[in-house]
Every structure is written in structure tokens, then in C-alpha cells.
Amino acid sequence: MKKRKIAIITATRAEYGLLKPLIQKVEDDSSLELQLIVTGMHLSPEFGLTYKEIEQEFQIDKKIEILLSSDTPVGLAKSMGLAQIGFADALDELRPDIVVILGDRYEIFAAAAAAMTARIPLAHIHGGEATEGLIDEAIRHSLTKMSHLHFCAAEPYRKRIIQLGEDPSRVFTVGGLGIESIKNLQLLSREEFESAVEFKLAKKNLLVTYHPVTLEKESAKKSFAALLAALEQLEDTHIIFTKANSDTEGRVINQMIDTFVAKYPKSSKAFTSLGQLRYLSALQYVDGVVGNSSSGLLEAPSFHIGTVNIGERQKGRIKAKSVIDAKEQTKSILKALQKLYSEDFQKMLPQVENPYGNGNASKQIVDILKTSNLDTIVKKSFYDIEVPL
Questions:
Q1: Where do the CATH 3.40.50.2000 domains begin and end in the chain?
Q2: Per residue, what are the HEC states of the chain?
Q3: What pLDDT, in 10s, does the model give residues 189-200?
């Protein structure tokens, strides 16, 4: 019996952390053939050459270089062009039966466009979500329209995908992939974690990740300065930074992090990439996640810790009760941090439920990838929802 070839694409450290359980299940299935394609930040020295971590666990079938040494809008647009050329060649050589993509990044848009024109079916994970402050919002919904199978994290997202005209029989609520890694990984003890990051935790600890809000022009420096000003006012608090992605103005944020850590070397440390094990282990020991990363919404609630979600990068996403929204202003961030450490809020955290499922997403996805009829799936009809005129 011919194995069904499943090509999975990853471009960032965070995305790979989510995809890893799925990659493992595809590789372990005797009826499937895994084709792993790595691109984007994984291949960049500036972002830690994280493809080397992937190679310790899986065989990489194709590496596609796309990053230019620029984080300007022009540079990112040119990177997308390079990406589409690279994916066109890779898919022509590998000839997968279906391509699996996750999320909303520009590299993935290029991959999807190459697959679509090659008439290769696409399976999209984490569609239907909203991030109204980002170009990712438009990219995610565009990926939905290019894709043929949809695996979403919550029921409201399934309804949104159907609202975009997708056939309900091809839209599946499977939950968030991040919860699965939390359940399955053997996380580090406090001592092991401190040794792994070469940094001592204090009585109070925060994990900070802040990315540019890509639909706002030249906002990164001002907004991140407001966050750093708030962090400077904290007492007896150690801070672990994970650096920004390769988005527009990402370098500005990373330079500001380096300056802050140089000023406060005993109480702060920065990492280009913590990797999945160290990152999830950190969530066990910090009091909260601060910034605008989706991790504060997707994974942090499972650890029963608070999230200070700053600005509009995650606007539109479903949020657990452990998420505190703050404006990109020092006063608002300090107020949110005060709430995070308040007695009432801390008492509430153990009862928090993660709205993104119970951690069996990858098994559901593999079962559907194995059994779906792909022969005519690329011929899509727009699914109309009857609405009163």
C-alpha cells in the first residue's frame, strides 16, 4: 500500500514547538510518510539557527532560505518572493499528497501560494482566529481560503471559518496544539531550569515576550519603551526576555532588550530562543507572562499563571480569565502587574480553565489526514450561509 506523503512546514521556533507532537505522530504512523520542510527564522544565525534543534529529533527533507538581512516592509515582501520560489521547487521535487501549515506568518503565505498553484491540497491549523493589530490577520484568513482541511482551536473559530465560505464537513475543532506539549513533555525541575538558562530565579519572576504590532507604523520603539519603563519600577523581580520574531521593527525591540539586560545583568537575562523545553519549563516557575505573544493566551493558562497582555496584537482572540489586558502605556502596564500580584487574582488562578482544549489535537489531526479523500478536494465550492436580507 502506497504511503500518503504529509509535508509539514515550519518557519519559527514557536511554531515548531506547537507542531512537534504532530510531526512525531506522522513519523510514527506506518501508513504515512513525513516530509519536513524548514524555512524562515530556523535558518538564520540572528535567530539562533534553530534548525539544529530540529535535526536532533527529525530528518529535515528541505531547507528553504528566504530571510534577507532586513526587517523593513520592503525586505519582508522580498522575503516572501524568495520563499515562493523556494517552495515551488521543493514541492515539485517532494510531490506531497497534502501540505500542513500552521498559523498566519508571511513565510507560510508564500508556501500556501506555491502549493495552491501546484494543485496540492492544504491543511491549515489554527485558522479562524483574530489578531486585529497585525498583517497576520489578513494572512490567516487568506490561508483559510487557500486551504482544504481546517483544524481550529475552539468552536467560535470553526464558525468563523465556515462564515468565510468553507464547507463545514472539512472544518474540525481539535483544540490547541500547545496544550499537548505541556501534557507530554517531562519539564525541568527548578534547579535544572536555573542550570539550563544559567540564571537564578528570585522570589518574583516574569517571562517577557514582545513582538512588533505590524499594522502600526513605527510603534515598536515607543510601545516597548513603555513596557521597559514599567519593568524598571518593579522591586525584587527577575525578568527573562525572549526576543522578537523577524517581523518589521523586530530588531529595534531586540536591541532595546540587550540594552536593558546590560543595565540590569543580575536581575534580567535575554534569549534569542529558549526552545520548547526551557520555555514551557519557565512557565512553571514564573508568576506571569508579560507582553503580546500568543503563548500568554494559548499555553500560560494551563500553568495557572497570569498573563499581562499588552496592546492589540492579540485583539480578537479568546482569552482565559487569567489574562489581564493593558494598554501600551507604562501606567496601564503597572496597574495590570499590580492586579497580577493581587491576593484576589492569585486565589482565582488555580480554578482557571484553558479555553483551547485538553491536549489531544495531534491525534485528531492525523486521523483526519489519513482518512480524508484527497482525490477531488482541491475543487472547492463556496459554502453560503443563509442570512436574512
A1: 4-176+357-371, 186-351
A2: CCCEEEEEEECCHHHHHHHHHHHHHHHHCCCEEEEEEEEHHHHCHHHCCCHHHHHCCCCCCEEECCCCCCCCHHHHHHHHHHHHHHHHHHHHHHCCCEEEEECCCHHHHHHHHHHHHCCCCEEEECCCCCCCCCHHHHHHHHHHHHCCEEEECCHHHHHHHHHCCCCHHHEEECCCCHHHHHHHCCCCCHHHHHHHHCCCCCCEEEEEECCCCCCCCCCHHHHHHHHHHHHHCCCCEEEEEECCCCCCCHHHHHHHHHHHHHHCCCCEEEECCCHHHHHHHHHHHCCEEEECCCHHHHCHHHHCCEEEEECCCCCCCCCCCCEEEECCCHHHHHHHHHHHCCHHHHHHHHHCCCCCCCCCHHHHHHHHHHHCCCCCCCCCCCCCCCCCC
A3: 999 999 999 999
